[in-house]
């Protein structure tokens, strides 16, 4: 059995920042990170647009209160306002801290950190490194992990959270290279496992974003919060689904329909292309429904709209959004200097996740916590995004709450002993689980069920939803879950068995998908990214509260938890 003072699952921004904070607080604490990819291949590296902070380098009128209000309004008033205050107050400090770690932010002519406009923000406050901001931050954090001696288990897959007597005691993990199994016991466990975009058939997320941490919590009997709120980013490159950053619209690009019209003037006349993502995604979907989408040959009635950069000029495009240009050129052979990009909404971000308090401690219920268990980043729900996240607040959440959770953990482990764990029983159960998958004599390929499941989620729980459509989706999803026992694996090898990994991930995806659909069906209102055509209005009287969904194989039970409202009273959301 392996042992560390702290085990962090996930090598992205939140996990790396937490590990760094623990070691900076007390270098003697033994910290390890386990990640199913190399940390630099974590999905955080794909974050493009930037990170919001009221540095006032471009707009001296900005302040944390304005940032907080924009965030709460953007969340459709479901964000916890105490958590938002921490996020926005600490934002300038964490940006300067990252700069001191070596992050190469883009600069103004006088040398200060540059800031750009972003959707839903009332001021130019988004700090950036061209359109490769996540890449710039993650590389420096990973370099600092080496400097501080953090142990990294790269390309290990965590199978189970060890949770006994309401205390997190460690994890069971599987080495992808050779199929070896290990139990790790620890004084504190942190999940920073990212999102679950692969629940849907078209997503900006990488192939590793399969909701593993959320599913492990659900299986362990812990609730998942606000899972119905899935953000569809307005500008996924059609048909591949990869992200064209909001930074492109922040730099002045236009959205146009088949008539060549900048149609956002009909939906958000003040903010136009920089309206919040939920509003912009619905606008694009409605334009396509109305027959004003575009076909590949340029004729009307198609399934995408155009993102037009041509007026920006080659020099500005190549200087400020080079990666967006590169993506369109690489995938579709489009030169965005001369041609518009085809875009449509793509599943992008999870506002919900593992419920935590503002110190990163995981909740067992609305009013109780799990001992020694923490979470931060996209897999967690603190909740600073509520029903809809503003662009450039996700990198900020990872760094602010990664740092804050790390500080909490550093204090938590000081006087704790390593827990007692019966490692053999967990190893036996893991071996049995893996062997049963390898021995399964089914008739269905994994890829077939996964594709049908992803199609089901996209069709039945997309940008617009109704009870009838979601009930059909749940029925279909349960049929697919029953077929999981009929899959078969061709690869029986112990060396780098990616087929086995996909089988394990598929089970997690279906648990997350069922939680999303059930939570969405129960919320009979439209709020933020959750848009019900059968309940088109927001209903504060009944649903100004967080969803807590408890999974079991027999079904999902829903409870609710109050929203923290201490500064901004809910009102109608207009842009």
From TrEMBL:
Signal peptide boundaries: none
Active site: 277 (proton acceptor)
Catalytic activity as recorded in UniProt: a quinone + succinate = fumarate + a quinol
Membrane topology of this protein: Peripheral membrane protein
EC number(s) recorded for this UniProt protein: 1.3.5.1
PANTHER family: SUCCINATE DEHYDROGENASE 2 FLAVOPROTEIN SUBUNIT, SUCCINATE DEHYDROGENASE [UBIQUINONE] FLAVOPROTEIN SUBUNIT, MITOCHONDRIAL
Subcellular location: Membrane
Gene Ontology BP terms: anaerobic respiration; electron transport chain
Alphabetized InterPro entries for the sequence: FAD-dep_OxRdtase_2_FAD-bd (IPR003953), FAD/NAD-bd_sf (IPR036188), FRD_SDH_FAD_BS (IPR003952), Fum_R/Succ_DH_flav-like_C_sf (IPR037099), Fum_Rdtase/Succ_DH_flav-like_C (IPR015939), SdhA/FrdA/AprA (IPR030664), Succ_DH/fumarate_Rdtase_cat_sf (IPR027477), Succ_Dhase_FrdA_Gneg (IPR014006)
Pathway: Carbohydrate metabolism; tricarboxylic acid cycle; fumarate from succinate (bacterial route): step 1/1
Enzyme class: oxidoreductase
Domain FAD-dependent oxidoreductase 2 FAD-binding, chain residue ranges per copy: 5-395
This protein's record includes keyword Magnesium: no
Cofactor requirements of the protein: FAD
Domain of life: Bacteria
Domain Fumarate reductase/succinate dehydrogenase flavoprotein-like C-terminal span(s) in chain numbering: 450-575
Protein name: Succinate dehydrogenase flavoprotein subunit
């Amino acid at each position: 059995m392996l042992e560390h003072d702290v085990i962090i699952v996930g090598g992205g921004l939140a996990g790396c920042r937490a590990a760094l904070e623990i070691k900076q607080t007390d270098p003697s604490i033994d910290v390890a990170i386990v990640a199913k990819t190399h940390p630099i291949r974590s999905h955080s590296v794909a974050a493009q647009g930037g990170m919001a902070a009221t540095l006032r380098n471009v707009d001296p009128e900005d302040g944390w209160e304005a940032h907080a209000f924009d965030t709460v309004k953007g969340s459709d008033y479901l964000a916890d306002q105490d958590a938002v205050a921490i996020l926005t107050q600490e934002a300038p400090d964490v940006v300067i801290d990252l700069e001191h770690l070596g992050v190469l932010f883009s600069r103004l002519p006088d040398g200060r950190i540059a800031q750009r406009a972003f959707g839903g923000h009332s001021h130019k406050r988004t700090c950036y490194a061209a359109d490769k901001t996540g890449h710039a931050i993650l590389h420096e954090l990973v370099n600092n992990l080496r400097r501080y001696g953090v142990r990294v288990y790269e390309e290990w897959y965590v199978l189970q959270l060890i949770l006994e007597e309401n205390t997190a005691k460690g994890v069971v993990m599987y080495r992808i290279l050779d199929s070896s199994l290990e139990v790790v016991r620890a004084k504190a466990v942190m999940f920073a496992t990212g999102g679950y975009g692969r629940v849907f058939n078209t997503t900006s997320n990488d192939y590793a974003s399969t909701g593993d941490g959320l599913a492990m919590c659900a299986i362990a009997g812990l609730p998942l919060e606000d899972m119905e709120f899935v953000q569809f980013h307005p500008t996924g490159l059609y048909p591949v689904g990869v992200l064209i950053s909001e930074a492109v619209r922040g730099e002045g690009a236009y959205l146009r329909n088949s008539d060549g019209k900048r149609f956002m003037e009909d939906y958000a006349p003040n903010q136009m292309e920089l309206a919040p993502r939920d509003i912009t995604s619905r606008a694009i979907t409605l334009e396509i429904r109305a027959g004003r989408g575009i076909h590949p040959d340029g004729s009307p009635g198609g399934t995408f709209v155009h993102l037009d950069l041509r007026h920006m000029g080659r020099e500005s495009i190549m200087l400020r959004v080079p990666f967006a240009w590169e993506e369109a050129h690489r995938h579709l052979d489009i030169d965005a200097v001369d041609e518009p990009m085809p875009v449509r909404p793509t599943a992008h971000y999870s506002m919900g996740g593992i419920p935590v308090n503002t110190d990163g401690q995981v909740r067992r219920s609305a009013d109780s916590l799990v001992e020694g268990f923490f979470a931060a980043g996209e897999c967690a729900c603190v909740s600073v995004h509520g029903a809809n996240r503003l662009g450039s607040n996700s990198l900020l959440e990872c760094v602010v709450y990664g740092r804050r959770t790390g500080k909490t953990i550093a204090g938590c482990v000081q006087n704790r002993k390593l827990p007692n764990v019966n490692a053999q029983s967990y190893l036996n159960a893991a071996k049995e689980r893996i062997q049963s998958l390898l021995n399964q004599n089914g008739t269905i390929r994994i890829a077939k069920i996964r594709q049908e499941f992803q199609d089901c989620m996209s069709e039945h729980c997309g940008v617009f939803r109704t009870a009838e459509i979601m009930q059909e989706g749940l029925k279909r999803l349960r049929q697919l879950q029953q077929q999981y026992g009929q899959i078969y694996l061709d690869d029986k090898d112990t060396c780098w068995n990616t087929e086995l990994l996909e089988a394990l991930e598929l089970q997690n995806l279906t648990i997350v998908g069922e939680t999303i659909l059930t939570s969405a069906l129960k919320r009979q209102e439209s709020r933020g990214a959750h848009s019900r055509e059968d309940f088109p209005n927001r209903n504060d009287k009944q649903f100004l509260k967080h969803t807590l969904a408890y999974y079991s194989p027999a079904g999902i039970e829903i409870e609710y938890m109050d929203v923290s409202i201490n500064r901004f009273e809910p009102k109608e959301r207009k842009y």
